[in-house]
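lol ok so funny story. i was supposed to be doing the assay writeup but got distracted and ended up predicting the structure for this chain instead. priorities right. anyway since i did it might as well share w the group, maybe its usefull for someone
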Amino acid sequence: METSNKRILVVDDVEENTYIVSTILKSAGYTPFVANSGKQAIQIAETQHPDLMLLDINMPEMNGYEVCKYFKATESIADIPIVFLTVHADAESIAKAFDTGAIDYLTKPFKKAELLARVKVHLALRQAQEQLEDQNVRLLRLNDEKNEFLGIAAHDLKNPLNSIRGIAQMIRKRKDIDLSDEEVNDMAHQIETSSNFMFEIITNLLDVNKIENGKLVIQSTGVDLMLSLSAVTDRYQAAAAKKNITLNVEIPDGDIQIYADPTLTIQILDNIVSNAVKYSPHDKSIWVRATLHPEQKQVRVAVKDEGPGFSEDDKKKLFGKFARLSAKPTGGEHSTGLGLSIVKRLAEAMGATIWCESELGKGATFFIDFPDTSVMPEGEAQ
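and the output, tada:
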């Protein structure tokens, strides 16, 4: 445990005592604060919030018991552990010390080794308690997120499931309602669309679970960026054409290699390009550009659209889980609200950086900075 950043408040009305204790603490690497009264101790605690307090009992105006009671009754300083330094070793005094909220006591005169041992133990216990509290907060947050997962997944899966069920019932009764082949084909397409959305929801939830549980496996290697971008943009040319959107791809000549995980690279690019098509109005353009930045050992991909853009409030939530933004898909497409959150985590996991620049009503540009192969460890094939 590091001692240099641990602050200890020494409270005693006898200056000789505070000098001795603070000198011992300094020699062990701690940072002591000295108070010669209970009121001064309260003032220092409220401004400095020490990690531990060593408190004398016999003081004028406000004795140690009263100081301890005040600390434990004041929320802002109640968590500071208090150890009494006292000449009183009788059972009644010791019991009263614990009753007022102290965690330990040390009788005067004490040995240097004993004082430092007690300080070390109680600082370690405080650190462990803080870590436990942080872990509990994290677990509560994860539990809330899990419940949110389940609620949103149930809500988002319910609509496509109802749609599939309704269509299946109509197909089963097709003779009674005289469905044409064209109508059946249209229903099959609706089932496929709903199923794809459900598959997307489940895939996203599995991705989140994998990331949260530390089971995401990164296998970075040399990746041909041109091939990856071509594969993704080719996939969305048809969807863009349906909305009369021009999908422009601008890539420098020559072989552009990045150091990344091939599968995650496709997943990241796919999500960003997909969103650009999904949220762009009809008759607009999208630009996918790659630029080299060898001085930063990076390759930058920018995806620019002419969609509605994002408000300042939207931009704060953009990469959050289940982000529900003001922008809506323009062609009846679905959105889970998880995609960008996952993309950001995937990018960061393999050393890439992603961000967005946008002005409401003037479109958005997503940037991804991938490491180039100059950062690849020696011995790996490019």
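The chain has a mean pLDDT of 86. The first strand starts at residue 7 and ends at 11.
back to the writeup now i swear
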